[in-house]
Design brief:
The complex is a heterodimer of chains A (about 160) and B (about 550). In chain A, strands 1, 2, 3, 5 and 8 form a 5-stranded mixed β-sheet that branches. Helix content of chain A is about 15%, strand content about 35%. Chain A contains 1 helix and 10 strands. Chain B is built from 18 helices and no strands. Chain B starts with 10 loop residues before the first helix and ends in a 12-residue tail after the last helix. The chains are: A alpha+beta (about 160), B mainly alpha (about 550). Chains A and B meet through helix 1 and strand 7 of A and helix 8, helix 10, helix 11 and helix 14 of B.
């Protein structure tokens, strides 16, 4: 009963299709690698742990907000909690580079600044960090993108970029 | 060549499958109440805010939780275990080896469903179907989900025992394709659900019962997504099974390549699980390098889907040409579009092409920053679980339910209208969801209450409501058609529906034996899982911060 032939028969059209699919996937992967490494479009990694039970009382998140490190360079600590962000508003001049550090003192939240590449999960116990440059003046709402309870839909703040 | 494809299934086996269908469709009928209400809310008509409605259901989020759990977890799992029971018995042409095992599994699933339904309906578990800690549901919710999953495992053991008995009775014979695919999906599911089982049994349940003080949100998320993505393949593979092994017969074609079909499924076994970090690309605490590894693995699992697209299309083409179709694309119009079961699955396949493209975008590491947790994501997975899987399942049930009940499908023309309504509703809904997602609208949010939604989006939000309304009509038409079919009079034996079983263009015995051996593929699957998840799970366990107490925020 068993066939002696152990090699896989592949139709020639089928082979072309498979090779094309593999090349396509490799090209896509190269593209995201270039965007990630050479163009610096990165996702968050490991920053460090905090204790969600005490994070609002001591340490950098006890007084969240904007801090100027050098002209045009800022860091912003944002504390997410049900159902608001602290601070609710951040104002920076046009062209500023801001490194955000975001954590939660209760449940999971999301932190997404509209029209930018800032879009991270906010987990209690972890600090999410990304750096964003604001090249155009305007208002950029930041919104909670993860269900966090009854007040979730109203949880937002804004970055004001001045001329 | 195997003899006749016919097999007379016993009445009790048919009844057992029928119970699965009944519960699956019952869950769908309740879960589908809420989806449209969410879309209406987006469009500006908030029924959740009505006092009479609030007397029954407390919030948008309770509705969303019921929609997700009942449709994505219960409708799918109950349908799939029932359909897999069919593929094992009918494909192997033998009864279950130990029916008691399957029955125990089934009852566990039912008890689990009831146990989870109580806290869900009482608003004690409004945590959505991802139940991210430290949001804490009532412990009954976790117990119920566990019983459903473990029950499905035990049904799986019943399939394995049956398959093992068949192998001993049929040495050297290639496993019939539909049974092979059905069993493989259960094996993949059992590897995949290790994550959620560990999450609930070791962390969430002890914590919900008050035995432990805290949980680590990152670790529990990681364990959830170990299961969460392959869950999608658990939904999709039974649809693929039908497209490969049944649909070609329904259109008068033949399966183009038995070997490639098996190879694709082995790749799904190996690649479906070790890629969950692509749901955690924007999570803090997971190193970028591991996210990149999982991005690559997610791209790899795109390949067996591409094989499937080729083989299924080629198999359909054989049918279209046999029916007189000419030219490059002329065969498409010759397919039996008037058959609601065929139309449902063809339309499901078309929607799924867009789902697949969107899925590649989601999997693309940094491009995910644009779409993560936006309305794009539910827009996407309504093309996968709610179209590729659900619309195919509807198509399958148009012959499966008549077959197991000995009835005739009630009003096939109406069924055809129903599947087209699903297609049209889904195109409108899903397109608008993708668009507002790209504009920045979050998912899981009653957008009518969100103060940051600009006025200019109202056109898209209206389209979401219109799409949802059409889907609402479609799903209840489906439920009515199923109910009337099941309650109608039995038809004479010579008019009974025959399950479609596609022949392969080549004798399956020509398929290499290594495509019908389990050990090596299982070893590769587990090894890849250990490589892709092992280091991170160990690291997260060693640095575990079980600091989060529970919160009830609804």
């Amino acid at each position: 009963m068993t066939s002696k032939n152990e090699s896989l028969h592949v139709d020639s059209y089928e082979r072309t299709w498979i090779i094309a699919s593999i090349i396509l996937v490799i090209l896509f992967f190269i593209a995201i690698t270039i965007a990630g490494t050479m163009m610096g479009i990165q996702v968050p990694g490991q920053v460090g742990r905090v204790d969600p039970n005490t994070v609002a009382q001591s340490g950098e998140f006890a007084e969240p907000g904007l801090r100027e490190l050098a002209p045009g360079k800022y860091e912003a600590h944002v504390l997410a909690k049900t159902w608001s962000f602290d601070p609710r508003e951040i104002t920076v001049p046009k062209g500023s580079t801001v490194t955000f550090y975001v954590t939660s003192s209760d449940v999971q939240h999301g932190f997404k600044i509209q029209d930018t590449n800032m879009n991270v999960m906010v987990l209690p116990g972890q600090v999410a960090s990304l750096t964003i440059t604001f090249d155009e003046a305007g208002e950029y709402p930041y919104i909670c993108t993860e269900y966090c309870g009854l007040g979730h839909a109203a949880m937002f703040g804004k970055v004001i970029v001045t001329d | 060549m195997s003899a006749s494809t016919k097999y007379e299934m016993t009445a009790s086996d048919k009844r057992f499958i029928g119970w699965h269908m009944l519960f699956a469709i019952a869950a769908l009928s309740i879960g589908s109440l809420f989806g449209p209400l969410q879309t209406f809310e987006h469009a500006g008509w908030d029924i959740y805010a009505q006092p009479w409605f609030q007397a029954l259901f407390k919030s948008y989020y309770q509705g969303l939780t019921l929609h997700g759990v009942l449709n994505a977890l219960i409708w799918t799992t109950f349908f799939i275990t029932g359909f897999t029971t069919f593929t094992v018995i009918y494909g192997l042409k033998r009864r279950l080896r130990y029916p008691i095992v399957n029955h125990v599994g089934w009852w566990m699933m039912v008890v689990g469903l009831v146990t989870a339904a109580i806290p869900l309906l009482l608003d004690w578990a409004t945590v959505l179907y991802t139940f991210y800690a430290p949001m804490k549901a009532h412990w009954l919710f976790y117990v119920g989900l566990t019983l459903v999953v473990v029950g499905s495992w035990i049904e799986g053991y019943g399939f394995y025992l049956t398959y093992y008995a068949w192998r001993k009775e049929n040495p050297g014979v290639r496993t019939p394709l539909m049974s092979f695919m059905g069993v493989l999906n259960m094996v993949m599911w059992q590897i995949a659900t290790i994550g959620i089982a560990v999450e609930i049994l070791f962390f969430l349940l002890p914590w919900a019962l008050g035995l432990t003080k805290g949980v680590d949100p990152l670790l529990t998320r990681t364990l959830f997504w170990w299961t969460g993505h392959p869950l999608v393949y658990f939904w999709l593979l039974p649809a693929y099974l039908s497209w490969y092994t049944m649909l070609p017969k329904q259109v008068g074609g033949k399966l183009f390549s038995d070997s490639l079909a098996r190879l694709a499924f082995w790749l799904f076994l190996v690649l479906s699980v070790p890629l969950g970090f692509h749901h955690q690309f924007v999570d803090p605490g997971v190193p970028q390098g591991w996210k990149m590894v999982h991005a690559f693995l997610t791209f790899s699992v795109f390949l067996p889907s591409m094989f499937t697209l080729f083989t299924v299309t080629a198999s359909l083409e054989i049918g279209g040409r046999a029916r007189g179709g000419k030219g490059w694309l002329g065969w498409i119009w010759k397919l039996p579009w008037g058959d609601p079961s065929v139309a449902a699955q063809l339309l499901a396949g078309i929607l799924f092409m867009f789902g697949g493209i969107g899925g590649l975008i989601n999997a693309s590491y940094n491009i995910n920053l644009v779409v993560h947790n936006t309305a794009w994501v539910p827009g996407h997975f309504h093309l996968t679980v709610s179209s590729a899987a659900t619309l195919s399942f509807m198509g399958i049930s148009f012959w499966l339910v008549p077959y197991i009940t000995g009835k005739k499908l009630w009003k096939p023309k109406l069924a055809l209208v129903q599947v087209w309504l699903w297609f049209i509703g889904m195109v409108i809904f899903s397109n608008a969801m993708h668009v507002i997602g790209l504009l920045g609208a979050p998912r899981r949010t009653p957008l009518g209450l969100a103060p940051y939604i600009p006025e200019e989006w109202s056109g898209h939000l209206l389209r979401i409501g219109i799409g949802g309304g059409i889907l609402f009509i479609s799903v209840y038409l489906y439920i009515i058609i199923m109910a009337v079919t099941a309650l109608s009079k039995k038809v004479p034996a010579d008019e009974q529906v025959e399950p479609p079983v596609a022949e392969s263009l080549h004798d399956p015995q020509q398929t290499p034996a290594w495509l019908d051996r389990w050990a090596i593929w299982l070893v590769i699957a587990l090894a890849l899982l250990a490589i892709a998840y092992g280091p991170q799970i160990v690291d997260q366990l060693m640095h575990m911060g079980a600091t989060s107490p529970g919160f009830k925020v609804w």
